Amino acid sequence: MIASIAPRALSVFERNVFVYRRQWLMIATGFFEPLFFLLGIGFGVGGVIGTLPYNGVEVPYAAFVAPALLASAAMNGAIFDSTFNVFYKLKYARVYDAILATPVSVGDLAVGELLWSNLRGVIYAVAFLCVMFVFGLVASPLALLTPFAVIFIGFAFGAAGFALTTHLRSWKDFDFIFIILTPLFLFSATFYPVEIYPGALRYVVELSPLTRGTHLIRSLCFGDLNLLMLVDIGFLALIGLLGYRHAVSRLGKLLLK
Amino acid sequence: MNLSTSNATALIRARGLTKTFGERTAVDAINFDVRDGEFFGFLGPNGAGKTTTMRMIAGVSPRTAGTLEIFGNDPDTDGPRIRGQLGVVHQQETLDQELTVRENLLIFGRFFGIERKEIAERADQLLELFQLSDRAKDQVEPLSGGMKRRLSIARSLINAPRVLMLDEPTTGLDPQARHLLWDALQRLKRSGTTIVLTTHYMDEAEQLCDRLVVMDQAKIVAEGSPRQLIEEHASREVLELRFPEGTSRISKETLDGIGDRYERLAERVIIGCENGEAAHARALEHGLTPESWLVRRSGLEDVFLRLTGRSLDE
Questions:
Q1: Smallest Cβ distance to B111: which of A94, A102, A255?
Q2: CA-to-CA distance for A15 and B111, rounded, in angstroms?
Q3: Residue A169: Cβ-neighbour burial (10 angstroms; 0-12, 13-18, 19+)
């Protein structure tokens, strides 16, 4: 099964490689956003705050924020491709109509697109990890595992974004995505510990996929291996699987009428 | 309908093929065979069910009822294997605007799982064949309509398909681009490719098709070679009388007896007859005063008119 699907999914991935060979600068832009947040909030606001207690140890604010920015960079990379680019190919360019006239199936198509959007997330994560090294914000060698860990983040957000995009009717509907993404980015224990939230609100925030992603990456960056990381991975993988299944079923409804 | 069921070399075989969308029946229990090496056409007006039929053959639209075999396989269960041997050109442009002309062929070959080196050779041959070599490195968008259509066809041939499926291939093209395309399709057919096309252009069907079915309102209403269809369903010549003020006030008695049969359209009366000049003389004797008239040989248009009582562009 996997052996027969894999080459076709990879050909869909390859199509994006073709496109971005000439547009690599477009990809580079996504690298700057987390960098600006690191400089402005991590070091700027961090200069006022100083340090923060993390696992009973005082850590510099920038070192606390940086792993969260790495996680959200991976999220943004995956989301961008699985929403804007997918919508363009689905509704406007009819790229998928052409592809489905070949042996490629909707499942292959979704896998190929998700591989690509995930790669984009990984690229941002690796680039940002280098920035963290340069600024001396990496506390543990386990941080080297973050490029692998962000694959779960990319899968969850890529697949969820893809699934959501199949329901969008026009470019105007993209406002919905921003309405979801902005609070997700701001409130998912990105800039402060999740313990700050009072009562039940905290448990709502704990269920944010970005909170889970951030917890996973932050644990690695501080070399703090814990069992909750398995929950992070399981939760992200579950969202990814549900999103993937929904996206495939929707693509079938939209394209194979 | 009497179909030759004994034919062993039918590449595509449909029996009772039906597709409904909710209440609407798009394709209503049609039967047809496409034989190896022939140029087969679906002729009919927009909305007759031609595109839906093409989509079912290509395995991107599951049928509601009936049987459908392509190369002996069922598209419901063997979609990828069937599509691997089909070339499909959609009615609306589906070229990849984010890629160059040559890249469109290269990546399409990858979707079929062909080796890169082989694709590159084939891509260059196809660009040559369709006179696109000098545009190989260009983006798709600035190409003319005719060039885009040729590129779409070239792309659909990257897997050397056994059957090429063309949905309205010349709609929107100027006459010169149409003729260029027709020539290219004739060459392809001579090289052994089976071609299935849909069209609502009579002249296209007459020029290209070895055999065709006429579709109207989800059904097949006639089947045969263009010549057979014309001989069976139309008289030798046609007299067209034009009445810009409308034809509704002309009485049935006036029209009877001018030719073998007549069809009354909004501003035209079409009269089927053996001899158009003689029929025109009779029309004048019957007191008709058309603004203009012409005599021509019968064509598929007249077959369609005869079978459905409507002209194709209505």
A1: A102
A2: 9
A3: exposed
CA B300, B70, B172: angle at the middle one, nearest 5? 40
Residue of B nearest to A6 (CA): B113
Residues in chain A within 8 Å Cβ distance of B80: 8, 103-105
Q: Which residues of A touch B112 (CB under 8 A)?
A: 102-103
- CA nearest A96 in B: which residue? B94
> What is the predicted pLDDT for the residue at A23?
79
Using a CB-CB cut-off of 8 Å, the residues of chain B touching A18 are 99, 103, 106-107
Of all residues in chain A, what percent carry a pLDDT higher than 90?
A: 86
- Distance between CA atoms of residues B272 and B304, nearest Å: 13
Of A14, A97, A105, the CB nearest to B90: A97
* Nearest chain B residue to A251, by CA: B60
Instruction: Confirm if A14 and B107 have CB atoms less than 8 A apart.
Output: yes
pTM attached to this predicted model = 0.89
Question: In angstroms, what separates the C-alpha of B25 from chain A's closest C-alpha?
Answer: 13
CB proximity A163 to B under 8 Å:
no
- Across the interface, whether the CB atoms of A103 and B84 are under 8 A apart is answered yes
- Phi then psi for A168, rounded to 5 degrees? -75, 145
Kindly provide the ipTM of the predicted complex, given to two decimals: 0.89
Tokens of A245: 């299944």
Number of residue pairs across A and B with CB atoms under 8 Å? 72
Look at chain A and report how many structural domains it folds into.
1
Q: Is A139's pLDDT higher than 50?
A: yes
Architecture of domain B10-225: 3-Layer(aba) Sandwich (3.40)
pLDDT at A212: 98
Instruction: List pLDDT tens digits, range A176-209.
Output: 888 999 999 999 999 999 999 999 999 999 999 9
SS3 B29: strand
Interface of A with B in 74-133 (CB under 8 A): 93-95, 97-105
**Residue A117 is part of which domain span?**
2-255
Residue B56 identity: M
Which segments in chain B show pLDDT lower than 70?
1-8, 311-314
Half-sphere exposure of A234 (CA within 13 A, CB side): 5
Q: How far apart are CA B151 and CA B312, in angstroms?
A: 29
